[in-house]
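Backbone shapes recur. Consider a single case.
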Amino acid sequence: MNGEPTHGPTDETLHESGSRHHPGQGSLGSTDTPGHRLTAGLTIGSRVVVRYRLEEGSQAAATDFLGELVARDNDFLIVDTRTERVKLIRADVIAAKDVPPPASRPGRAHRRISADDLEKVMAKGWPAVDRGGLGDWVLRASGGFTGRANSVLVVGEPSLPLDKAIDFVESWYAERGRPPLFQVHGEPGFVPEDQPAVAALLARGYAVGGGNEGWERVLVMTGLSAAVPPLTEQSAPVVADAELKPDWLMAYGEQRSIVPGSTEAVLTGSEGQLFLSVRHPETDRIIALARLSIHPGWAGIFGLWVHPDHRRSGLGTTLVSAAAMVARENNMPAMYIQVSGDNTTGVSFWEDLGFTVHHEYTYLARPGS
């Protein structure tokens, strides 16, 4: 779009070069209006709803825009709606909030979302330190800390032909000193080889699981926060910290290797998270923990761990019950977790709490990489 921005739909992309004055909008020079404060917490790349003040003389005083927030600067928002791209003056925003992805199929709250949309939600719950985009694909690198934060999320379509897209990905990871790793997903029981991207990768010497049995089949399980058993008077006390504390991180390191800097960045990188823990009543040491990632309508549980000396005592269930209570109190009816398909004990644990398989994913890597 050429010319000055208006209140109506536009095709202009947002320039990030700072403030610009719009004739007739005296409030635009300030970045401390109610509209600026309301839109400061919106998440770039998320689905949002924005109530917007219309010009005097319009048939209505305001209208709502629902879509993906693709850009924001001091003065403007760019929102992709279903029909058009709109550019909105932040000072004229009356209300705004992130909202869950749209329902794509019938069912309860945790079943209505598509696999693609849930994968995008989960990627925000475990955010990579270094991110890139290739069309719909999301490239992630985090110093080798976890496969999820160091792989390409193959979702939707890349912006290049498939072979060139794979070339681009391999070059992107080579620049960061990391082996390329692809994460692909499908419905429960899907055959990876049936997907064109997987077939192309297999032809290049990649393997499903990349030689790691735990990566061959990962289950994404979802459930209702209202269906999780509540805490009882007999439940161990659970502490919920908004900040990552050193002793929590040390206890977390008992279940997986820590990559200094990268681990902390991933654990604290979501728009919102809580670090849950249970302490020994005598030593005050953390003996069970979990991380809760917070999204509009969704809560994700990561890193659930109980010290070997205290397993089979109900601490895992206590942590999930505490997480579900937080979810219920904050209008998050749906919850998700990820568990290796070969972890039969873990799968049974989540099934007992009302979780069912939503979809599956696998990784592809060159063996030995």
The helical segments are 34-40, 115-125, 162-175, 196-203, 246-252, 262-267, 315-329, 344-352. The mean pLDDT is 89.
